[in-house]
Structure formats: structure tokens, C-alpha cells
What does this fold into?
Amino acid sequence: MDLPDIFQPYDKLIEIEILGQRRFVPENNSLLRCFQFLAMENISYGDFCWNGECLNCQVWLKNGNKEKAVMACRTTVIEGMKVVRLAEGIDLSTTNDGEINTPYLVDRPRLTTRKFPPPGFLARL
Ligand code: FES
It folds into this structure.
């Protein structure tokens, strides 16, 4: 497969698990880049900032008996990584290795309840 120059250099593909399904992705790359490797069109046209600001790439990793939320664009993939939930915008329904059944999609996370403008802001103008 011809890949664009968007991937970090890698020597091999490593195995990870996404929603219980095994996939092989390029080592040394972020998890979001690995999702792009699997579903080039869907992820390339997705609503992602790629720099840790939008949280649209949030995924949950299995961490012992717990889950840990991380930003896929800021997390380097490691062998055996288990992704147990995905943010809604991560569309892996059509990958180059077959469909990933995604029953565990979650709504886009809202980590802030900040209102805009903040109280008193307009009074200062
Ligand atoms: S793509 Fe925006 S925070 Fe990861």
C-alpha cells in the first residue's frame, strides 16, 4: 500500500486491540495516526485538530481493571494496547482491514461547563 508521508518512520506493524478486534498498525505513531492508517479517508476528513485541543480524538484504554481516557493524537501506540471505547467522531466503520463494529461509541466529551462570555466580561468593555 502506498502511504502518504504523514506517518513517523516505522519498521514494523504492531498488534493492538480496538473494541475487541485485533488490528496491525505502524509502531512509533500516535494512536490517531494509527486509526488513520486503518481508515485513511474517514479519519483524514474527520473533525480533528491533531494537536491536543479539540478532544474529538478521545479514547479509553484498558488499564488493568480500569479504563483511562487519553487523547489519541497525543498517545503513542504500544504493542498490545487495548482501546475499549472511542469518541463519537472516530469513524472506523470502514477500514482497510474490514469493518470494526463500534457499539461503544460515546458522545463527544464535554470537560468544561465554562460559559462565554464569562460573568463580568461585557461590563469591562
Ligand atoms: S485531535 Fe484534537 S485533541 Fe486530538
About this structure: Confidence is low (pLDDT under 50) at residues 103-114. Residues 32, 48-50, 52-57, 71, 73 surround FE2/S2 (inorganic) cluster (CB under 6 Å). The chain is about 10% helix and 25% strand. The chain has one domain: 13-107.
